[in-house]
Specification:
A two-stranded antiparallel sheet has the order 1-2. The longest helix is centred in the C-terminal third of the chain and has 15 residues. By secondary structure, it is mainly α.
Length: about 120
């Protein structure tokens, strides 16, 4: 995959967002990492094992099996939407802000190509 090709990156982001559990994981990470306003949970003094930014917290808060969480986090990491930092014996996850911004831009560019009015002529097909 060519990471410099916008269409390939958009497809990779779309695939990562194509499962409800991955969307829920991202929502949890975004909510948790916004707790201190900096987008970096390492500055949040309230992080602990049950926190939503640690593997165990994702697993317990979303009521998903450990295997499922592991698989979904791997897909999100592969797409570049999530980063992890090992803090033995724990692993902390956060949204990759650069790639999140790129995903937003690529989706906005695609969705902005046509407005709802542009599709009115296809309603009679």
């Amino acid at each position: 995959m060519d990471i410099n090709n916008p269409n390939e990156r958009l497809s990779q982001f779309a695939k990562a967002l194509s499962h409800p559990a991955r969307v829920a994981i991202l929502q949890l990470l975004i909510e948790k990492c916004a707790c201190c306003g900096c987008g970096d949970c390492s500055l949040c003094k309230g992080c602990h094992d049950e926190c939503g930014c640690f593997f165990r917290g994702v697993h317990t808060r979303l009521n998903l099996s450990k295997a499922s969480v592991s698989q979904h986090l791997a897909e999100l990491k592969k797409a570049g939407l999530v980063k992890c930092k090992e803090e033995p014996p724990r692993v902390k996850y956060r949204v990759d802000s650069e790639n999140w911004a790129l995903a937003r831009k690529l989706f906005n560019d695609l969705l902005g190509l046509c407005s709802h009015a542009d599709f009115k002529h296809t309603e009679t097909l």
